[in-house]
Amino acid sequence: MSADILLVGLNARFRHTSFGLRCLQANLGELQTRSKLLEATINDRPVDVLEKILAEKPLIVGLGVYIWNLLEALDLLRMLRRVAPDVKIVIGGPEVSHELEGQPILDWVDYVVCGEGEHAFKALCEQLLSGKPPALKIIPGGSPPMSEIASAYHLYSESDLAQRVVYVEASRGCPFRCEFCLSSLDKGVREVPLELFLKQMGELLDRGAKDFKFIDRTFNLSMPFALGILDFFYARLRPGLSLHFEMVPERLPEKLLQALARFPSGVVQLEVGVQTFNEEVARRISRPLKTQKIATNLEALHQETSVHMHVDLIAGLPGEDIDSFGRGFDRLQALGPHEIQLGILKRLKGTPISRHSEPFAMVYNDAPPFEVLKTGALSFEELQGLKRFARFWDLLVNNGQLPASSPLIWRHQASVFSAFNEFAQWLFGRAGRSNKISLIKLAEYLLDFLIECRALSEAEVGPLLVADLSRLGGRRLPKRLQVYEHLLPKKPKPSVNTGLKRQARHAAKV
Q1: Calpha distance 244→372 (Å, rounded)
Q2: Is 384 within the bounds of a domain?
Q3: For residues 43-64, b (16+ Cβ closer than 10 Å) or e, as one string?
Q4: What does 133-167 look like in DSSP terms, one character per residue?
Q5: How does pLDDT run across 368-401, given as a tens digit for each residue?
Q6: Which one of 146, 166, 200 terminates a domain?
Q7: Would 62 disulfide with which of 90, 355, 437, 507, CB 3.0-4.6 Å?
């Protein structure tokens, strides 16, 4: 059966779902029966996606455009326009909601919906299908109360609930003005009525949903709201349940800490946006910090709860040099987060961070993801080194795959950052690349580094590497390490009850 309205998602990977497109479809009203959702990934060949689109014989194609699928979306829409010139093409999403002038993708589409599009897209489709197309190409979105936006959760299929991330939102907007973030443009925070939201979550749980990722920018902004959600899920704990929240680190009252402490290991993941420990830099980008409060709260989460802490830092902020960043990294690492996500500053379209470009000599890449290439405080070479640092830290530490052996890199060193940076540059020099390095090969490189640069013996490092690799299973040990296999315990540790493998590795070593 064909669809007059086809909503196309180019997701980063199969496990992800397009929540935004489901929201558009859910709010089409009577037109919903004339619509379909088609999801692919950025790894699919555009011509194959095009074939699937044309098989539906749509009159209107809507596509969400993000920083991570912009180039793939452009390729797809170029072909769609050439092959099916009569199809009306509508795009929306954060990448095409600001600074539209000069964007190549606009040459291949009929309409652009800027901002929140649930009501605007419905109105546009009604006009197009009734033969009364609007004269203007740019369609402004809106920001209606959340109670006036239809829920999209019924559009998750049984397969989605069983195999993929279920994105949910209890609120939209952010009260903070961090200049690198599009949420700095929000005019306030709008919440879904709590009773309604919990009813929706109950329906998802009844259908078998387990992996919930909240897309709220500040989950812990309203304490009654946050506590109500945590109480709801705690009362419905079940094997495999996973909850992911973003939180602002300064807000952790005792009631919230206690509510989080009730959950067993592997259930709750907190994504915490610290970004920098340099208070002068933070003020510059409208992100005022209470660094001691942040440190106290992260330490409390580490010591008093079993939540998985994923903490963000950004390199390349205006005026922050390598020494300042390194000190912030060391301070954060000492507080015990499970993962430190080191990101490179991106200039997202529409964000106020651009006002610092000239005063701080900020040079950005013109291609997605629009990362900063150099600043007045960080050279191009230093930023390249930090990218490699981030990549290797993710492989060795964040992934939780070598928990016993990787800390030897910085053991007895004055700075974790400096010690790991030395390893990252050594590894890049030895391997000649920062991707497509197998875990077994990575373990061998680590062994060589610890022997050559930390003066450790193979007899000291080998058993730790074997213990790490044996936890993962399914891998044949390198010959030089097989001699230590007899030191392994006969019975493996019991697995952690969670559907998220990466978090489970960290929990298993606690």
Answers
A1: 28
A2: no
A3: ebebeebbeebbebebbbbbbb
A4: --S-SEEE-----GGGS---GGGS-HHHHHHS-EE
A5: 999 999 999 999 999 999 999 999 999 999 998 8
A6: 146
A7: 90
